[in-house]
């Protein structure tokens, strides 16, 4: 199924983005102490929701599928590699973030495989 990576990403990223924006302490060991910190998390939410909109458009409009898939690859692998760098420099995070790395790597590489399949057709 050529849209599976986009569908899974949408299902995961929209709720996680909203949690980052409105309830960062719900799943994560995070305490926001200033309006600036709240602003950063709302901006992250905006990025997550913006990319999700692009992925939805990629499903609905075949002409945008490649752009949506490339953005999905960059989004997922960018998050995963950032988290890996954090492990190297900062230490092991909580379990939810370790699971996030696994999911991001899986989705990023699956999207890459889907793109390669599409390009070879």
UniProtKB/TrEMBL annotation:
Name the UniProt record assigns to this protein: DUF4345 domain-containing protein
InterPro entries: DUF4345
Pfam families for this protein: DUF4345
Organism: Flavobacterium buctense
Transmembrane regions listed in the UniProt entry: 7-23, 43-60, 67-89, 95-113
Keyword terms: Membrane, Transmembrane, Transmembrane helix
Top-level taxon of origin: Bacteria
Coiled-coil residue spans: none
């Amino acid at each position: 199924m050529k849209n599976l990576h986009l569908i899974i990403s949408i299902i995961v990223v929209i709720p996680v983005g909203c949690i980052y924006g409105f309830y960062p302490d719900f799943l994560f060991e995070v305490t926001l102490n200033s309006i600036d910190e709240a602003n950063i998390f709302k901006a992250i939410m905006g990025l997550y929701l913006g990319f999700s909109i692009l992925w939805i458009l990629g499903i609905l409009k075949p002409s945008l599928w490649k752009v949506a898939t490339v953005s999905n690859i960059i989004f997922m692998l960018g998050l995963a590699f950032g988290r890996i760098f954090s492990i190297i420099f900062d230490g092991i995070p909580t379990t939810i973030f370790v699971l996030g790395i696994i999911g991001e790597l899986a989705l990023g590489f699956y999207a890459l495989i889907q793109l390669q399949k599409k390009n070879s057709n």
